[in-house]
Structure formats: structure tokens, C-alpha cells
Design a protein that fits this description.
Layout (H helix, E strand, L loop, with lengths): L5 E4 L4 E5 L5 H9 L1 E6 L5 H8 L8 H4 L4 E2 L8 E2 L4 E11 L4 E11 L9 E3 L5 E3 L7 H6 L9
Antiparallel strand pairs: 1-2, 2-7, 3-6, 4-5, 6-7, 8-9
Length: about 150
């Protein structure tokens, strides 16, 4: 499924997504208690829209959109080779009242050889924003540590 609402929680690989009983994937998440968050790039926008406008209940999305399923190391759900990154996750909590599913990341796979690295972000009105600029602030953060504090 495509998902437009996600949230990183804590300072750990914990995520929240929202979906509910209206979505075929919701039943799969409740049953299997696992999934893969696949991170597409801007060159996949038409594929993403297509995936989001059909149901896995009656459509083999890998076949229809010519995607390559790769086995995960920790979950049975497939990774998507064409995506920039894939995060294997297990469901840790379902908050039915708000249709929120909390996921813990177990492993991440990143395709460093992929030329396109600009990720898509859904605005929610059928438009997307792409990013891709890298800001490395490791050095400046290290220099701001209090004296005697060691990175851990």
C-alpha cells in the first residue's frame, strides 16, 4: 500500500502510520504483525499513485507495476528492489481509536548505487514534494558537546 501519514517516534527506529479497516493492508498488518516500509524516489511518482489507487485484495501490485520483490532478513513481507530504501518492521501496537499502527524498525536496506535519491513526500491533496539535498552537520554537533561528554 502507499501511505501518506507517517511519523518517526522517539529517537529510535519507531514509526507510526495511520490506516484502518477500510484498507486491505490493515487486515494484513493485524494478522502478520509485520511489514516493510519501502522508500520510493521522485522517478517512481506514477507507480506510487498507481499502487495507491488499487487494492491488494484483487491486484498483484508487484506484477501490475513491474516491481521486484526481495526477501527480508527479519520479516516475511517483501522488500521492493526499485525503492531507495526498505525498512523491515514489526507491529508493536495498534491504537484502534485513532487507526494508528506503531512499528519498530528491525533492519534497513539502502541502495547507495541508485542514481535518483530524491524522496517523495505526499502533501495530502494529490501533490508531492521531493527533496534530495544533503546537510551533514556531524562536525558542528560534535563541537557543541559539553566538555567531558563523550559520544556514545
Amino acid at each position: 500500500m502507499t501511505i501518506t501519514w507517517t511519523m518517526v517516534m522517539d529517537f529510535s527506529p519507531r514509526f507510526a502510520i495511520t490506516t484502518g479497516g477500510w484498507n486491505h493492508s490493515y487486515a494484513a498488518l493485524k494478522t502478520t504483525k509485520e511489514c516493510v516500509i519501502s522508500i520510493p524516489t521522485v522517478d517512481m511518482v506514477d507507480t506510487i499513485v498507481g499502487i495507491g489507487t488499487c487494492s491488494g485484495q484483487d491486484t498483484d501490485k508487484f506484477r501490475k507495476f513491474d516491481l521486484t520483490a526481495l526477501p527480508g532478513k527479519h520479516v516475511g513481507a517483501p522488500l521492493i528492489r526499485e525503492c531507495l530504501a526498505n525498512i523491515e518492521c514489526c507491529v508493536t501496537e495498534i491504537i484502534e481509536r485513532h487507526s494508528i499502527i506503531v512499528l519498530d524498525g528491525l533492519a534497513v536496506w539502502y541502495d547507495d548505487a541508485r542514481k535518483e535519491k530524491r524522496m517523495l513526500h505526499a502533501v495530502g491533496d494529490g501533490t508531492f514534494i521531493a527533496d534530495g539535498r544533503k546537510f551533514d552537520r556531524k562536525e558542528s554537533m560534535r563541537s557543541r558537546l559539553a566538555p567531558g561528554v563523550v559520544e556514545g
